[in-house]
Structure formats: C-alpha cells, structure tokens
Amino acid sequence: MNSMNKAILSILAVTTGAAAGWFVKNIKDKRNDLEENKPLLERLKQAERKLYEAGQRHDEQLKRIKSEIDQKVSN
After folding, report:
1. What is the pLDDT of residues 45-59, one digit of tens each?
2. Spatial distance between the Cα atoms of 19 and 12, rounded to a whole number of angstroms
3. What is the pTM of this model?
C-alpha cells in the first residue's frame, strides 16, 4: 500500500469511529431523556385521568338535575 492509501484509510477509520461514537451517545442521551421524563408523563396521565373522572361526575350531576326538572315539569 502506498502512503496515500494509508492516509485515506486512516481518515476513514477516524471518521467512522467518530460517527459511531456520536450515534451511541445520541441513543444513550435519548434513553436517559425518556427515563427522566417518566415522572412527568405519569403526572400528565394522572391529571388527564382526574379531569376525565371529574367530567364524568359532572355529566352524572347534569343528568340527575335534568331528570329532576323533567319530573317536576311533568307533574
């Protein structure tokens, strides 16, 4: 091999190593971000659940009020 080919192979090896390292670092960072955001996601799910349950209770109250009014009007 001449010196030009060795230089090109060295540059390719360094570039490939850097790209592989960058790729692994990004995957690791994304995984850490997801793990750190789990409590936030859980709180959002809980808030959504509470809001949904409050809406159901409100709907039941409105149905009860409507049925009471219908009974009073029909009497």
Report:
1. 899 999 999 999 999
2. 10
3. 0.46
